[in-house]
Amino acid sequence: MIPYYLELVGLHERAGSYPGSLSGGEKQRVAIARAFSSPSPILLMDEPFQSQDPATKNQLIDLIKKLHRQEKKNIIAVTHDISDAAKLADQAFVLGNRPVEVLLDTVVDADFEKKCSEVLSWQTSLIN
């Protein structure tokens, strides 16, 4: 099972490598493969695309979407990149600073990035 997921994230040739020999991006991809290989119906992902170049990030987003459709896992992902959320999510929450509050709870649609920008601009105007 593990070789299948390593193949999907493009690391099958590194299967026997020690963790210390992997780059930060490779470690991130191993974490994604490990998460999807788990029988758990829910995945928690904290900045899953950190340390990835743009091309690899887009490939991983496509891969996660494909695996989500195939395996019907629920995914809760934390990201600071609104465009990542727009590409990956069905529903998104924009959280404010301390104390943490939900500034926006929305379905991801064609207006998602605009809604997020408006909320973040509004929040910035309150701070200034």
Mean pLDDT: 83
Number of domains: 2
Share in β-strands: 15-25%
| SSE class | alpha+beta
Number of strands: 4
Strand order of the largest sheet: 1-2
GO molecular function: ATP binding; ATP hydrolysis activity
Keywords: ATP-binding, Nucleotide-binding, Transport
Organism: Teretinema zuelzerae
Protein name: ATP-binding cassette domain-containing protein
Which descriptors apply to this entry?
ATP binding; alpha+beta; 128 residues; ABC_transporter-like_ATP-bd; two-stranded parallel ribbon; 16% strand; transport; ATP hydrolysis activity; Rossmann fold; 2 domains; two-stranded antiparallel ribbon
Model description:
- There is one protein chain.
- This protein is an alpha+beta fold.
- It has 5 helices and 4 strands; from the N terminus they run ααβαβαββα.
- Strands 1-2 form a two-stranded parallel sheet. The protein has a two-stranded antiparallel sheet with strand order 3-4.
- Strand 1, helix 3 (54-71) and strand 2 form a beta-alpha-beta unit.
- Helix 1 (2-8) crosses helix 2 (24-37).
- It is elongated and about 50 Å long.
- It starts with a helix and ends with a helix.
